[in-house]
Write a structure and sequence with these properties.
Number of helices: 2
Largest sheet: 6 strands, mixed
Keywords: Disulfide bond, Glycoprotein, Immunoglobulin domain, Repeat, Secreted, Signal
CATH architecture of the largest domain: Sandwich
Number of domains: 3
Low-confidence stretches: 18-22, 24-28, 34-41, 54-59
Shape: globular
Number of strands: 27
Protein name: Platelet-derived growth factor receptor-like protein
Main location: secreted
Strand content: over 45%
Subcellular location: Secreted
CATH superfamily of the largest domain: Immunoglobulins
GO molecular function, one term: platelet-derived growth factor receptor activity
Helix content: under 10%
Mean pLDDT: 82
């Protein structure tokens, strides 16, 4: 009876082991062939995360890349930094990769059609070369690739390059100005810049009023200093008017810039404010008459005049003279008055009718008219 009881208990124990997944101790039975071939270890393994391709990657806006290279001596080259400092007299050579490259450079070089500058397009890159550089060449040099669809081309914003270059020259802390006195117009609706730029980026530059004599602080609120532009009036008003100049100090030397007349502008920007007036609207045969077209506007905005008059189709001889000048209106306000005057001698039948004047500026045009008849 005891033997059968022990045998029953052993069978129950084995059944419980199979249910719970527990294995008998290693020393209780021999290993089966192929069992436990992989040895356990404590080494941590970083799981590999499969790369998932972004379906929208092709639609994403491509990042802009600089295509400009600065060619240096002995055949070396490098991508230029945002600003460079070169010694005047050096030859500047910039290249930009692309088969259609456009360039921008200081307007000083364009104004005088300077022969020291050459721009060429090669098969794979555009090339800008400036020889015998001077302090006056200081400024921004930039390039961009042209993106064309058929005959229509535009700027490719993903392929551009630019650098601001300081050309240091002995005795020239300021970029030379073509005149000894310049005018800066103060508009209430836009920033105004006193363009005293330096050729040495580390120079200490200050702004001064001539009368009453005092330094104008660049406090970051009313006035800020930008080494690439000069002193910037953020919100100009009439109290800023007067004559100012800049002073630069570097390497134990100092220099004074040209003087700038700051004038506050009264007339806001927009199409010309135009009036027309005849010397007389009732004229006798044989008299001389004149018709005056007048525009009051922004001092730094040029105005062009066009005329239509009765004798035009018959090629009636007339005299037209255009002039402009600055005038002061009220306290601290400056306005540009532009005028065109048409003169007709020996008035006759063909001169009777409408005299039409059209004044045009960058913001638009205005047309006015008056009639002249026999008295």
């Amino acid at each position: 009876m005891k033997v059968w009881l022990l045998l029953g208990l052993l069978l129950v124990h084995e059944a419980l082991g199979e249910v719970t997944g527990q294995q008998p101790p290693k020393n209780k039975r021999p290993k089966e062939p192929g069992e436990n071939r992989i040895k356990p270890t404590n080494k941590k393994v970083k799981p590999k995360i499969p790369k998932i391709k972004d379906r929208d990657a092709a639609d994403a806006t491509p990042k802009a890349q600089s295509i400009m290279i600065h060619m240096m001596d002995k055949g070396r080259f490098q991508k230029p930094a945002a600003t460079l400092s070169l010694t005047a007299g050096q030859t500047l050579e910039l290249r930009c990769k692309g088969s259609k490259i456009e360039w921008s450079y200081p307007t000083y070089l364009d104004t005088f059609k300077d022969s020291r500058l050459s721009v060429k397009q090669n098969e794979r890159y555009g090339q800008l070369t400036l020889v015998n550089s001077t302090a006056a060449d200081t400024g921004e040099f930039s390039c961009w690739a042209q993106l064309c669809h058929g005959y229509i081309c535009g700027r490719d914003e993903t392929k551009t390059g630019s650098t601001y270059i300081f050309f240091t020259e002995k005795g020239e802390l300021f970029v030379p100005s073509p005149s000894y006195f310049d005018v800066v117009y103060l508009n209430p609706d836009k920033q105004a810049v006193v363009p005293c730029r330096v050729t040495v980026p580390s120079a200490k530059v200050t702004l001064h009023r001539e009368f009453p004599a005092k330094e104008i602080p660049a406090n970051g609120t009313d006035v800020v200093y930008d080494v690439k532009r000069g002193f910037v009036y953020l919100q100009p008003h009439s109290d800023h008017q007067g004559v100012v100049y800049c002073k630069a100090e570097a390497g134990g030397k100092s220099q004074i810039s040209v003087k700038y007349q700051l004038l506050y502008v009264e007339v806001p920007r927009g199409p010309p404010s135009t009036t027309i007036l005849a010397s007389s609207n009732k004229v006798r045969s044989g008299d001389d008459i004149s018709v005056l077209c007048t525009v009051l506007g922004d001092p730094d905005v040029e105005v062009e005049f066009r005329w239509i008059y009765p004798g035009q189709k018959d090629e009636r001889p007339v005299t037209i003279q255009d002039t402009w000048r600055l005038i002061h209106r009220g306290r601290g306000h400056t306005t540009r008055i532009s005028q065109s005057i048409m003169t007709i001698e020996d008035f006759e039948t063909t001169d009777v009718g409408y005299y039409i004047c059209t004044a045009q500026n960058l913001q638009g045009e205005t047309t006015v008219a008056t009639t002249v008849e026999f008295s």
